[in-house]
């Protein structure tokens, strides 16, 4: 975790090395030093081809895989953005999980970056949690891989050397909530009137499943034992003001505000998020991220280790068992029936909304 902070290796060397290892069909956003903040989507080139081009140019940062996430960096402030971009709901598939982990590592390898904002290109949904279709009649090969990719996202986010700020523009149920809780700071949108309040929380029990121990413990560490015990049992989804009162989020923002951060956000936000430059959640997220970026990184990372290293170690130790438990649980006949019923309800609701 701290080795990246102290690493004298230039970011471009690390990135080229990583590029060679990436899947040949991946697409990347390339950022070249010396140019103004600049992105180019190259979808038809192989990784090896891109690596060759990269060696000829001073590479500053590149990301992201298949644009399931979009990223950008603002080296002047030390802040980056990593936004999930999997319509319609940013539900977490194996590929989205892998893209989040890969992009986070690429951002971490830029020594000028100290903070990252985890965001969504969907202005009303942060992430709908696990892609439930991954859980229904899964293949024996894909299911453990899928769960491993989720564990890895948790480990990467929770143990990142970067300060992580979640910009929660909309709904964040279940594993969507886990992403937010694994960050250092959470800012949630207050919603657009009582009718359209976003919610956040672990609603697994309402689906007939239980949050795995490491996810449940994350809630316990965030809001305390008794409130977490109740919220986990009931599958509570907190609207913004209740989430703030319970400590699930650190800040709730509704008011539109103009700020000098707007200009920085224009440079910082990837194209898919340009409509969010005057969004109050994004402004606050940037300000918070910039604030963290000013703290001496070694001290900031060391303090993060104090609170997080034990649970990360535990996660590593129990990871294999957790995967086995998950696969056994999900493939159980009763659980499969519950999940199918839940998806059917979700589809009916979608149809009713559209008609
Ligand atoms: C003792 C036990 C110990 C240990 C246990 C061991 C292991 C643990 C085992 C299991 C743990 C499993 C952990 C699970 C964590 C999860 O994340 S489960 C997923 C939970 N997610 C949800 O329940 C969210 C469902 N979605 C919603 O509630 C709404 O969609 C949402 C509020 C997010 C947004 O609402 P709205 O804006 O109205 O949008 P729509 O509902 O219309 O949705 C838009 C389209 O997106 C599709 N969709 C939504 N969510 C998902 C999803 N999670 N997966 C796949 N697809 C999703 C939805 O169907 C719509 O599609 P359509 O446009 O109709 O095609």
From TrEMBL:
Protein's UniProt keywords contain Mitochondrion? yes
Q: Which UniProt keywords apply?
A: Acetylation, Fatty acid metabolism, Isomerase, Lipid metabolism, Mitochondrion, Transit peptide
- Main location group: mitochondrion
Alphabetically, which GO biological process terms does the record hold?
Answer: fatty acid metabolic process
Q: Which stretch is the leader sequence?
A: none
Q: Which GO terms describe its molecular function?
A: delta(3)-delta(2)-enoyl-CoA isomerase activity
Q: In which pathway does it act?
A: Lipid metabolism; fatty acid beta-oxidation
Q: Which family does it belong to?
A: Belongs to the enoyl-CoA hydratase/isomerase family.
Give the protein's recorded name: Enoyl-CoA delta isomerase 1, mitochondrial
Query: What species is this protein from?
Result: Cyclotella atomus
């Amino acid at each position: 975790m701290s080795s990246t902070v102290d690493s004298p290796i230039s970011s471009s060397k690390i990135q080229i090395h990583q590029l060679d290892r990436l899947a040949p069909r991946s697409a990347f956003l390339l950022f070249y030093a010396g140019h103004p903040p600049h992105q180019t989507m190259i979808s038809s080139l192989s990784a090896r081809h891109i690596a060759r081009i990269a060696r000829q140019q001073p590479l500053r940062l590149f990301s992201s895989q298949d644009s399931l996430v979009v990223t950008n960096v603002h080296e002047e402030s030390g802040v980056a953005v990593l936004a999930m971009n999997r319509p319609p709901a940013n539900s977490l598939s194996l590929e989205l999980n892998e893209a989040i982990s890969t992009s986070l590592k690429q951002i971490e390898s830029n020594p000028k970056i100290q903070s990252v904002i985890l965001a969504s290109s969907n202005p009303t949904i942060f992430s709908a949690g696990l892609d439930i279709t991954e859980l229904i009649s899964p293949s024996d090969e894909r299911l453990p891989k899928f769960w491993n990719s989720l564990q890895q996202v948790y480990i990467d986010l929770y143990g990142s050397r970067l300060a992580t700020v979640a910009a929660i523009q909309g709904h964040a149920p279940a594993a969507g909530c886990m992403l937010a809780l694994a960050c250092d700071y959470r800012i949630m949108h207050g919603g657009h009137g009582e009718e359209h309040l976003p919610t956040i929380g672990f609603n697994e029990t309402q689906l007939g499943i239980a949050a795995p121990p490491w996810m449940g413990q994350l809630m316990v560490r965030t809001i305390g034992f008794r409130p977490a015990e109740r919220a986990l049992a009931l599958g509570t989804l907190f609207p913004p003001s209740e989430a703030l009162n319970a400590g699930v989020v650190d800040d709730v923002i509704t008011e539109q505000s103009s700020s000098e951060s707007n200009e920085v956000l224009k440079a910082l936000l990837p194209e898919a998020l340009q409509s969010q430059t005057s969004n109050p959640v994004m402004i606050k997220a940037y300000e918070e991220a910039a604030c963290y970026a000013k703290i001496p990184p070694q001290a900031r990372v060391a303090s993060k280790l104090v609170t997080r290293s034990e649970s990360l170690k535990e996660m590593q130790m129990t990871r294999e068992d957790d995967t086995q438990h998950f696969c056994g649980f999900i493939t159980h006949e009763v659980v499969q029936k519950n999940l199918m019923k839940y998806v059917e309800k979700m589809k009916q609701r979608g149809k009713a909304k559209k008609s």
